[in-house]
Request: fold
Amino acid sequence: MKTRESFVPVYFQLAEDLKEKILAGELKPGDALPSETQLGEQYGISKMTVRNGLRLLAQEGLIESFRGKGSFVAHPNLSELILNLAEHGSENPQDYDSKLLAINVIAAEDGVALRLQIKPGTKLIQFRRLLLIDGEPVAVENRYLTYQRGQPLVEQEIKYADFPEAVARHTGIITEGNQVTISAVSLHQAEADLLEASSGIPALKVEQLVYGRQNTPLGLSIMICHGEKYHLIASTRSFFG
Reply:
């Protein structure tokens, strides 16, 4: 297992190691994974941790598990619809950048509290960042996570990590899914200033709510995208592609 930041849950490290082997072709569709006992011995972790890691891979559609038979590398799903929210409008990742604007501990306002199913005033960590493509600002994002005293925060993770992954790393809880809501809005003055645009022009509002078990909300992202500079992509592809 690769050496990673100590705050990254061990099951994440296991899942990422196995995912790399699958995507690199070391493990091919139909191949059986080692048993939970074998993986636990190989990585020096408990069976429960192994199960959590395998569960992440199953959620991504990379493996299938069968009671009494074990886990196998899944065959590519060519009919899966993928909404590309992964940093987000540039085909060349070198063109993409993110600027962290602020990190604050805040009291949850009514709207955010309602989405996260918590009491208004509950402590949250708010991350505010600016997304840029070719050096031009294209979106402003606010991320809200539960406040955990002593939880380490790494700027690179905040700036670049996929939101469901960032939530799981912060909370140490396996994410079960996320709900994305896209709507048309107009830029407010504060957002327009950051995006170097005129107030009132059309924009996209993308809300991403990440869930844990039993549909418990774990984190909320609200992103305001410049309507003329930013696009979202939906496509069908194999996860091996």
